[in-house]
Amino acid sequence: MIRRATITLCIFLSCTQYLQAQGIEISDPRIRDIANAITQICHVPSRRGDYWEVRVAADGNATVRLIGLGAEANLSRGEWNGVREVLTPEGQVSDRQACRNCVEKLAPLFLEKFASVEANRTGHVNLVGRWISPDGLFYWVIRPGMSGRYSIEEYFKRGNRLIGDGMATVERNTVNFTLNSHGNFFDGDTLYLRQITVNGILEYKGDRLIGHTDELDLMDESAIVTMTMLRAN
Predict the structure, then answer these.
(1) Can you spell out the DSSP letters for 120-186?
(2) What's the rounded Cα separation, in Å, for the pair 131 and 232?
(3) From CA 125, how far away is CA 202, in angstroms rounded?
(4) Which H or E run contains 31?
(5) pLDDT tens digits, residue range 29-84?
(6) What is the spatial distance between Cα 120 and Cα 72, in angstroms, rounded to a whole number?
(7) Do the beta carbons of residue 99 and residue 43 sit within 8 Å?
(8) Which DSSP string corresponds to 186-219?
(9) Where does 129-231 sit in CATH, by number?
(10) pLDDT digits over 109-134, tens only?
(11) Considering the chain, what percentage of its residues have pLDDT values greater than 90?
């Protein structure tokens, strides 16, 4: 366990140092998500399938999809062969030097290929980033999770208070999510009553998520609650 923690730290620092040396702002959520994918791909060979999908054509060119980003990019035969050379084979454990070699090879290539890609041409959805409610009071921070899922953190904007967390899955342009509340809370004299668990199905429309949830409307318990979340700039 100590060895694994050391290797992870080694990768993170290597990736961070590379990005900073290139003058790239690592606080950008998209850049952090790419760096996280690189970390996992290089560090845990047996779980690469949780973070990427690779299709290699007969001519040796490859298409790589980063699952958490919902984005894909094309690699030439030479680029893909270069990636393969630094990957630790599945079934083996990456050592410190292998981790560094892998990160230093993948970081510039993946930043070039993925940093400006919003969503790929096959209809995959890019949820990663910040989404805000129309009234501006609540927002979600969505990050890539495990096995193609996404993690959600829900915040109350005033004070950036964490008020819930959950998971989402995507099938075509449909987002299925579950949010677990951290309890009721006050904002000044206003009490916000929170349902323990909320499930919903939202349609992805690029700059917004819109659909229905099972949250109860306290004024009309028979009503179907509509939810909209807008992509934050």
Answers:
(1) -TT------EEEE-TTSSEEEEEEE-STT-EEEEEEETTTTEEEEEEEEEEETTEEEEEEEE---EE
(2) 5
(3) 12
(4) helix 29-43
(5) 677 778 878 877 887 767 777 778 899 999 999 999 887 777 788 999 999 999 99
(6) 5
(7) yes
(8) EETTEEEP--SEEEEEEEE-SSEEEEEE----TT
(9) 2.40.128
(10) 998 888 766 544 334 567 888 999 99
(11) 36
pTM equals 0.49
Nearby residues of 222 by Cβ (< 8 Å), 6 or more positions away: none
Place of tokens 């400006």: 116
Do residues 225 and 231 lie in contact, with contact meaning Cβ atoms separated by under 8 Å?
Answer: no
Q: How far from 199 is each of 55, 132, 202, 221, CA to CA, in Å?
A: 34, 18, 10, 16
Alpha-carbon distance of 198 to 127, in angstroms, equals: 19
| Domain ranges across the chain | 2-114, 129-231
Which residue, chain included where needed, has tokens 């980033």?
A: 129
Under the phi-then-psi rule, with left for phi > 0, alpha for psi from -120 to 50, and beta for the rest, what region is 136? Answer: left
Minimal CA–CA distance to 145: which of 169, 114, 174?
Answer: 169
